[in-house]
Design brief:
The chain is an alpha/beta fold and about 550 residues long. It has 13 helices and 19 strands. The strands form 4 sheets. Strands 15-14-13-9-12-11-10-18-19 form a 9-stranded mixed β-sheet. The radius of gyration is 23 Å and the shape is globular.
């Protein structure tokens, strides 16, 4: 055996990873920090700042030069870029976190994995079926050596595993139908008309990237940090609307409990759904997905609702209109109503004595991310019965109502994405017609720097989900015992199939008929024209799988 093969064999037995440099990294390695690149430093990128403080951030990339300069104050040793393709040429990058606009996600993920880099990608994994299948296939070829995580961070809530246990152990009997919904309503009349010129510090052509060119408009940049996607993700060239936004989070709650792959048939209720618009994703949509039987359950139908559409309540005393994102699991013996942080079992009949439900013991419960899961329920207060509501604790640094900043007169910290009389939101403009989302200071950076100067500890916020991925990059086992990975709960196999399903809902909406789908080949088998809807055309010079 050659020395190199012996070294690899020894490393695998010790639970270590061999990096591109040939060095070893593991739990007992002298240097256990990961060389990371953050691509997209604002918006969702700020949610990673605190956990990244414990690693080596060697590269920062953003299309807004001002945002890159701000992030550089937190990570002063990083090299800076505005083109993510140049980041992936940097030889010491071992892992990337993708927080760009959605239409870049699949490109960066594919390019990074092709260069042997671990990848954390905010949702959605792509905006076409072809993109997501390409990412998933690339991951599956390298899953032994690469760690991936899809940014559905609510998966760290304990409720996800507790709900899965109930379904697996028969609390509803034989599972038949699952419903999931998102209530957000963000209509648009079409792409915004061109207005003004992009500011000099914004690389607008790079933001457009592989998508067809649209003239600059402040409408694309009218939102606050972490929420700016609500100003552009409904446009088909840049996103997939709620199917890939809150839909990804809600579907994750269902997906974790049914062990499904891509569906075999998809049908949209055209009577209640919005009519197809080539520019704008539907607001109202009801779509059914058929999933075949697996090793522990029979075939199930999964029904998705959005834009205010919701399933009938399991009981007349349940008001589903007050649940913005939820799920209903229907079985032969009972029903479970759930949201992200809680669940309620409801027997079907008078014989619902739950004797058919074989409750598992404490020692058999599924392990949570980080051992404890992300805390969602407040402790009971003295003199008051019960636990508090599903609060998420104190907000991370810079997440207060106004982030501790003095806003200009007439400005709000969280600009609304709701439409006005002209069909578009009102965008707050600063001097020179620049949207405040592009120009106002990044309050997360300000808060972290102020805390460091004052010697205060910085809260990591909701970080267990990111930490699971970082540990997986370093060769540590997270104890995942279901799904497709022994590394992370939401790897690109598990999440890739989930997003493939959601995007097939948009394909069926466009086809305006029930479509039958072969998950193995990734082809629609009963409507050849629908296969053209599985992909999109890219601008010259952009390659999906580079």
């Amino acid at each position: 055996m050659h020395r190199r093969d012996l070294l690899k064999s020894a490393a695998a037995g010790a639970g270590l990873l061999i990096l591109k440099s040939g060095t070893l990294r593991g739990q007992n390695a002298p240097s256990n920090k990961l060389n990371l690149a953050l691509i997209g430093v604002w918006g969702r990128g700020t949610a990673h700042y605190n956990v990244l403080k414990n690693e080596n951030v060697v590269a920062l990339c953003d299309v807004n030069d001002n945002r890159t300069k701000e992030a550089l104050a937190i990570f002063p040793k990083a090299k800076t870029y505005w083109d993510w393709r140049r980041v992936l040429d940097q030889k010491d990058v071992e892992a990337v976190i993708i927080c760009t606009a959605d239409h870049h996600h699949a490109f960066i993920a594919n390019w990074a994995m092709n260069r042997g880099m671990h990848v954390y990608c905010e949702k959605p994994l792509g905006i076409t079926v072809e993109e997501v299948r390409t990412v998933r296939a690339n991951y599956l070829k390298q899953k032994v050596k690469l760690a991936t995580q899809h940014g559905t961070q609510r998966h760290a809530y304990p409720n996800f595993e507790r709900l899965r246990e109930l379904i697996l152990d028969g609390a509803v009997g034989e599972l038949k139908t699952v419903h999931g919904w998102d209530a957000r309503v963000l209509p648009r009349p079409g792409y915004p008309p061109g207005e003004g010129m992009p500011p000099a510090f914004l690389h607008y052509e790079q933001w457009i990237g592989p998508s067809p060119y649209h003239p600059y408009s402040p409408q694309y940049f009218g939102g606050s940090s972490g929420m700016n996607c609500l100003f552009w993700n409904m446009y088909r060239d840049f996103g997939v609307g709620q199917m890939g936004d809150m839909g990804a989070h809600t579907m994750d709650l269902l997906w974790n409990s049914i062990d499904a792959g891509a569906p075999t048939a998809i049908e949209v209720d055209q009577e209640v759904s919005d009519k197809y618009n080539p520019d704008i994703t539907p607001v109202k949509l009801k779509v059914s997905f058929d999933h075949p039987a697996n090793s522990w359950r029979g075939p199930v139908t999964l029904v998705w609702y959005q834009g205010g559409l919701k399933p009938p309540a399991p009981k007349n005393y349940v008001d589903v209109s007050r649940i913005p994102n939820g799920a209903i699991f229907e079985g032969t013996k009972g029903t479970i109503l759930a949201d992200f942080t809680s669940r309620i079992p409801i027997p079907n009949n008078d014989d619902g004595d739950f004797t058919y439900y074989k409750r598992r013991g404490k020692e058999e419960t599924l392990p949570l991310i980080g051992g404890t899961g992300q805390v969602t329920q407040a402790a009971a207060r003295a003199g008051r019965g019960g636990a508090g509501g599903g609060g998420r604790g104190a907000p991370p640094a810079g997440r207060g109502a106004a982030g501790g900043r003095a806003l200009p007169t007439g400005f709000t910290a969280m600009p609304s994405s709701e439409v006005g009389p002209n069909g578009f939101p009102t965008v707050q403009l600063m001097e020179g017609g620049i949207p405040d989302a592009l120009a106002l200071p990044n309050t997360n950076v300000q808060s972290i720097l102020q805390a460091e100067q004052a010697g205060r500890a910085i809260s990591a916020g909701d970080s267990l989900f990111q930490e699971e991925w970082i540990d997986a990059c370093k060769g540590k086992s997270s104890g995942v015992i279901h799904g497709t990975s022994s590394k992370t709960h939401c790897d690109f196999d598990y999440s890739g199939a989930m997003i493939e399903q959601m995007l097939l809902g948009l394909v069926a909406h466009r086809a305006a008929k029930r479509i039958e789908y072969d998950p193995a080949s990734g082809r629609v088998t009963n409507a050849s024209e629908a296969n053209d809807y599985l992909k999109r055309q890219y601008r010259s010079g952009w390659t999906l799988n580079g």
